Amino acid sequence: MKYSLLITLIILATSCKGISQEKETSNTQTEVKKEFPIxxxxxxxxxxxxxxxxxxxxxxxxxxxxxxxxLAIKKEGTYVCAGCDTPVFKSEHKFDSGTGWPSFDKxxxxxxxxxxxxxxxxxxxxxxxxxxxxxxxxxxxxxxxETTGERHCINGVALKFIPSK
Length: 165
Ligand SMILES: [Zn+2]
Description:
Elements: H1 2-33, H2 42-48, H3 51-57, E1 77-81, E2 87-90, E3 94-95, E4 103-104, E5 112-117, E6 124-129, E7 135-140, E8 151-154, E9 159-163
Antiparallel strand pairs: 1-2, 1-9, 3-4, 4-8, 5-6, 6-7, 7-8
Bound molecules: zinc ion (ZN).
């Protein structure tokens, strides 16, 4: 009697372990799916970025409108990710949307990737750097109709401007 109870306990213990191992495996798979060519720990990003850059790029915060120095830039050049210097927008695609956030009607193809979020109650297309996964902003479909019709609404703090020579 005692012996069979012991066996039951061993089976229970083993099956619990089996379940927890399965969980670990599926968590790892999710992480692999989200992996970007540049991955850093939160502490490493915090060390590298300013507070504002960290909250926008790594925590998907939104900067206050009309605060970005990039809004006034009309020079030719490239806008790169503030986290990893990947070129994400070109000056020729920048336009004044009047929203207070740097706006573009086109991204540099392949250098940004998209996701859907429901953070403010409705569906939005979230846009992030394809190299480091840093959050850049959102894409809307009310951009200039004479070009692409897209409005890439980007946090200036997520970008750095590199003027053309
Ligand atoms: Zn990046």
